[in-house]
Amino acid sequence: MKITFLGTGTSYGVPVIGCECEVCRSSSSRNKRLRSSLLITIDSKNILIDTTPDIRAQLLKTKIKHLDAILFTHYHADHILGLDDVRIFNRIQKTSIPCFALKNTIDTIKTIFEYAFNPNTPEGGGLPQLTLNIVKDSFDLFGTQITPVPILHGNLSIIGFKWKNFAYVTDCSFMPEDSKKLLYKINTLVLNGLRYRPHSTHYSISESLDVIKQIQPKRAYLTHISHDVDHENLKINLPDNVKIAYDRLTFKIND
Predict the structure, then answer these.
(1) Which stretches of 26-143 are assigned E, i.e. beta strand?
(2) Could you say which DSSP state residue 202 is in?
(3) What is the pLDDT of residues 50-68, one digit of tens each?
(4) Higher pLDDT, 219 or 119
(5) By residue range, what is the domain housing residue 231?
(6) Number of domains in the chain
(7) What is the CATH number of the domain that holds 173?
(8) CA dist 172 → 68, 83, 103, 176, 196 (Å)
(9) Which of 43, 210, 250, 251 has an alpha carbon 20 to 30 Å from 241's alpha carbon atom?
């Protein structure tokens, strides 16, 4: 299993438009954060988590030439609004792309991208061809079991995703005990850590570290990071098994 961080930023991205803070003016590539998205490659199959408004640039930068499935954590704009850009893969692959999400996310996609599901829509430059699947429980994808991880994003119920040795959880502000047990002592955990100060709908870095301490993964990466966090000058000491992720970070996980 190969993991590639396509983006590690918040809904604003970093740099933030109109901001002159040190991080937004930084020349460090690790302080340049596109909206949060992840690519998982298993046995040559590319599985994308979330289609951010930056997805075209993300896929070009990582030279992705095929896309086999899409998982959605939830329906907020910074996680779905790049969906139309996947239609090039329909043309290349001549297949529909299977998508997996909670029912409320599927319903929102059908509303926002109504034209893609309307048989009367003129094709023009092409329409995204998507096969929408509602996630209710664990499901098999390309011979691998994926388990949804229920969490809260403010008062909204959303999901992360767990494979055998890896889990991706973003936009979390509360993780139920059952979800912590599901992830207990996992090999690699990705969890959001927005900033140093508390936030109403996202874990702060210290809150994420508390959850990581409870789950006890072998290693963990923080993502969905705001411009409050300077990758080159952290204001908090991280445990040895925790790192701040950055765009285009890649690593492998053994079965």
Answers:
(1) 37-42, 45-49, 69-71, 97-101, 130-134, 139-141
(2) S
(3) 999 999 999 999 999 999 9
(4) 219
(5) 2-252
(6) 1
(7) 3.60.15.10
(8) 26, 22, 19, 11, 15
(9) 43
